[in-house]
Every structure is written in structure tokens, then in C-alpha cells.
């Protein structure tokens, strides 16, 4: 992402939020109902994300996973939209919304 002139803290926060929600959406897609990795290759990533965001991962595993996953997916789409609008322009961001690749 390019830096918004005069808003370096905003850029840092946007990037951190994008990474957080990307990780949480990936965690939900890569785990079973018990929060365990579906595939052996994902075990390291699942453990890393669970350590970074323990409360969020607990909510994915124990809460209403449809609501939690929907919220996290919506946040990922919003953060991707803002980053793409900043880096490539509003038209590009609109054309690619919602971007939920994880």
C-alpha cells in the first residue's frame, strides 16, 4: 500500500486491520468446528493466528460462527476496499468489491 500523505498512522492502522481480518477469515476457512486445522499444512498457520488473536479465534470456535465469520468477512472486504481505493483509485476498488481472498 502507498502511504497517504499526512496520514502515516492511518496507513499503519489500515494495514494492521486488513491483516487481522485476513487472518481471521483464513482461520475460519482452515479449521473445523473444534478450531483444529483441516489440513496438515495449515497447522502452523492456525496455531500462529490463534496465538495472535486468542479471543477472536475463541469466538470463531465457540460463538455463533456464522455471525462472527460474516462480521470478519465484512471487515476484510471493507479494509480491502479502502486499501485498493487509496492505492489504485475508487473505480478500481468499486470494480473489485467485495474482495474476500484469503
Descriptive terms for the model:
102 residues; mainly alpha; elongated
Task: Give a verbal description of the structure.
With 102 residues, the chain is mainly alpha-helical. The chain has one domain. It is 72% helix and 0% strand. The chain is built from 5 helices and no strands. Helix 2 crosses helix 3. The longest helix has 24 residues. The model has no long low-confidence stretch (mean pLDDT 85).
Short description:
The chain has helices at about 10-30, 45-50, 55-60, 65-90, 90-95. The protein is mostly helical and about 100 residues long. It has one domain (about 15-95).
Head-to-tail CA distance between termini: 17 Å
Helix/strand structural class? mainly alpha
Largest sheet, strands/sense/barrel: none
User: Strand content of the residues, in percent?
Assistant: under 5%
Number of strands: 0
Mean pLDDT: 85
Count the domains.
1
Q: Rg to the nearest angstrom?
A: 15 Å
Order of helices and strands: HHHHH
| Uncertain regions spanning at least 5 consecutive residues | none
Task: Indicate the percent of residues in helices.
Answer: over 70%
- Determine the number of helices (DSSP H or I, runs of at least 4 residues): 5
Q: What is the global morphology?
A: elongated
Amino acid at each position: 500500500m502507498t502511504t497517504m500523505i499526512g496520514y502515516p498512522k492511518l496507513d499503519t492502522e489500515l494495514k494492521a486491520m486488513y491483516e487481522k481480518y485476513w487472518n481471521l477469515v483464513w482461520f475460519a476457512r482452515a479449521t473445523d468446528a473444534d478450531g483444529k486445522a483441516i489440513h496438515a499444512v495449515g497447522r502452523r498457520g492456525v496455531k500462529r493466528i490463534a496465538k495472535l488473536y486468542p479471543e477472536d479465534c475463541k469466538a470463531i470456535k465457540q460463538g455463533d460462527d456464522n455471525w462472527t465469520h460474516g462480521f470478519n468477512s465484512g471487515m476484510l472486504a471493507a479494509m480491502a476496499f479502502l486499501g485498493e481505493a487509496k492505492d489504485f483509485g475508487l473505480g478500481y476498488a468499486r470494480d473489485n468489491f467485495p474482495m474476500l481472498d484469503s
